[in-house]
Design goal:
By secondary structure, this protein is mainly α. It contains 16 helices and ten strands. The strands form five sheets. A two-stranded antiparallel sheet has the order 1-2. The longest helix is centred in the C-terminal third of the chain and has 25 residues, at about 310-335. The mean pLDDT is about 90.
Length: about 325
């Protein structure tokens, strides 16, 4: 399979290097192709090099699923819920003239040059009004996944530009979710604290937090407690494997009902910390270095591989301090610890 994929990639590279006239009509094609090449070859083979891959328009998919009584509900891309962040005013005005929701979604793809779609289809779809939607968003509990790392600007993965959040909202939101050792909480109290901020702006900001991975909605406490033993068994297995490699970079959170990204070094720290909750940064660094050095592995930074044991230990200690100060409180709040 690796040989087959590599041969196909080389053929396409030679084709693009020959400058076919099609490139004049799609000038970003070369850039898009090279971006695809950054992906794992197994992913490329799965997505593109199979016998049954068929390009379909959104309207075609919606038509086929309608036969199973499934209706288009919404995109899984949170940004799709905010036209003002993804479209120019003329585009919004034009789309609002289209009454058929399927046709509107199809045309919207042209405005944002979407290549792939991810969406929900439901049977027995029952739309809710904006007021009910707003109430549900405010009453949902959210957990903060990052500590003191939130910037008001992030990349817009639909337009390729930047989105800047309102500082009067995103900072109080981050501080609020970090209160009480990151205990998950709904947004009703925050809305009361910010009487001069429109509720719609608070809703938008928390959804943007979820979109960029700063926060996640939570399950109720009863459900989280019920699934915790199973999550613990899974996590213990993953943490044990982290001593041998870093293939699995997520752990299960009973509170989130899903996974959270945790790199290999933090997994090694976490495994040791679960056995010795009073371990300091020095001890954690020594533990991680004993694992890495026994396998002939070293850390790397922007300058390249860190060669000396002393410098590796120094870097591991810095990472351990960050783990103890920022990651441990979050792991506890997420019921991973």
């Amino acid at each position: 399979m690796e040989t087959k994929v590599g041969g196909a990639i080389e053929f396409i590279r030679k084709l693009l290097a020959a400058e076919p006239l099609y490139l004049r009509r799609v000038p970003r094609l070369k850039e898009m192709f090279e971006q695809l090449m950054d992906n794992n070859h197994n992913y490329l083979a799965h997505e593109y090099f199979n016998d049954n891959w068929d390009l379909m328009y959104f309207a075609d998919v919606a038509d086929e699923l309608a036969a199973a009584k499934l209706e288009f509900a919404c995109s899984t891309e949170i940004l799709d819920g905010f036209d003002e962040l993804c479209l120019l005013p003329d585009g919004i005005k034009f789309l609002n003239t289209i009454k058929n929701p399927i046709a509107k979604e199809q045309v919207r793809d042209y405005f944002i040059t979407r290549q792939f779609r991810k969406e929900f289809y439901l049977r027995g779809l029952r739309p809710i009004n904006p007021r009910e939607r707003a109430e549900k968003i405010l009453k949902t509990r959210y957990a903060l996944l990052t500590a003191n790392e939130i910037s008001g600007e992030f990349a817009n993965n639909i337009t390729g530009g930047k989105i800047t959040m309102n500082e009067q909202v995103y900072k109080p939101l981050a501080e609020y979710l970090a209160e009480d050792n990151y205990r998950p909480k709904d947004l009703t109290a925050l809305a009361a604290r910010l009487p001069n901020i429109p509720t719609a702006l608070i809703e938008q900001t928390v959804l943007l937090f979820v979109h960029i991975g700063h926060a996640m909605p939570c399950q109720d406490e009863k459900t989280a407690e019920k699934v915790k033993p199973r999550c613990d068994r899974l996590n213990d297995c993953i943490l044990q494997k982290s001593r041998l490699g870093g293939e699995i970079v997520s752990l299960a959170s009973p509170l989130l009902g899903g996974g959270i990204g945790v790199n290999r070094i933090d997994q090694i720290y976490l495994a040791y910390f679960k056995k010795k909750p009073k371990a300091n940064a020095e001890e954690l660094a020594q533990e991680a270095w004993s694992v890495l050095s026994s396998q002939g592995q070293k850390l790397a930074n922007r300058e390249g591989t860190i060669e000396s044991a002393e410098e590796n230990l120094k870097e591991l200690k810095n990472l351990a301090e960050n783990f103890l100060g920022k990651r441990v409180p979050i792991f506890k709040a997420l019921m991973i610890l």
